[in-house]
From TrEMBL:
Statement: the UniProt record of this protein carries the keyword Transmembrane: no
Entries under Pfam families matching the protein: Methyltransf_11
Protein name, entry field: Class I SAM-dependent methyltransferase
Lineage: Bacteria, Pseudomonadati, Pseudomonadota, Alphaproteobacteria, Hyphomicrobiales
PANTHER family: METHYLTRANSFERASE
EC number(s) given by UniProt: 2.1.1.-
Protein's UniProt keywords contain tRNA processing: no
InterPro entries hit by this protein: Methyltransf_11 (IPR013216), SAM-dependent_MTases_sf (IPR029063)
Key words, A-Z: Methyltransferase, Transferase
MF (Gene Ontology): methyltransferase activity
Listed Gene3D superfamilies: Vaccinia Virus protein VP39
GO BP terms: methylation
Methyltransferase type domain sequence ranges: 41-135
Length: 266
């Protein structure tokens, strides 16, 4: 089942989100747990933020990283020098692995881009052994990403298309309070716990913030790419004004919240 995340250039994705997911990965691993000798599956690996953090965090035996996007798979494989890590293309809703193959299944910033997120959770549960852990985290687009909401709200103020974009962006799967925990319970996981993880996104200047969006990366960039040149220029100017907030262009920092959940396979 395809993802709703749009990626063109791995470097653009890393500027947009990958650099922050690398920071978030460390907190997510602390929450999800990890132990030497384990076999892990990273569901929706992207360019490898969680994958390579897992390899550094413990002396695990085996890490299988999958992503639906061949662009991401190629980029992550190109970076990989660790024989414990295997990277391949696969669908989160139809994982090509036997029941109970792994000790942990982890999905970092993925489930909100999977149209049938509950099916992906069910598949993660299926491929984890009894007693193993399923864990996931998603950004809180509605209330926990002020830097991105600033952009989305600005676009929404300019057109009906922007308003529709905001509605889609703020209410993706697994983002409402308790939604992911309830899904984990419904898919048969036990001892389910949820929490919030907080990181800061620090930008050097407006171009550091806006360039990957202007280049078409991610759902916001995909929307901007569908617009004409004049409308793109109008949005660029309005978002710049929101970013600068009446001060000269330069560094800005935004706190960002991810919603995380973990459960045990009975």
């Amino acid at each position: 089942m395809p993802s709703t995340f749009h990626v063109h250039d791995p470097a653009g994705y890393d500027q947009l989100m990958g650099r922050w997911s690398k920071i978030l990965a460390r907190q997510f691993i602390d929450f999800a747990g990890l132990a030497d000798g384990e076999k892990i599956i990273d569901v929706g690996c992207g360019t490898g933020s969680l994958t390579f953090a897992l390899a550094e965090a413990a002396n695990v035996d085996d890490i299988v990283a999958i992503d639906y996007s061949p662009v991401f798979v190629e980029a992550a494989a190109r970076r990989n020098t660790d024989p414990r890590i295997k990277i391949r293309q696969a669908d989160a809703c139809a994982l090509p692995f036997a029941n109970g193959r792994f000790d942990r299944a982890m999905a970092l910033l993925v489930l909100h881009f999977v149209p049938d997120a509950a099916k992906a959770v069910a598949e993660m549960r299926r491929v984890v052994r009894p007693g193993g852990v399923v864990a996931a985290a998603v950004w809180d687009h509605l209330g926990g990403m002020p830097g991105m909401r600033m952009m989305v709200d600005t676009v929404a103020a300019l057109s009906e298309g922007g308003r529709q974009l905001r509605g889609r962006y703020c209410f993706q799967p697994m983002m409402q309070p308790g939604e992911m925990k309830q899904t984990f319970i419904e898919q048969g996981l036990v001892d389910v716990v949820d929490t919030q993880l907080v990181v800061r996104m620090d930008y050097r200047n407006f171009d550091d913030y806006w360039a990957p969006i202007a280049a078409g990366e991610g759902p916001l960039g995909h929307y901007v790419a569908t617009l004409g040149i004049e409308e793109q220029a109008r949005i660029d100017a309005a978002v710049r004004d929101a970013y600068e907030a009446g001060r000269p262009d330069g560094p800005r920092s935004f706190a960002n919240v991810a919603l995380a959940c973990r459960g045990l396979v009975p």
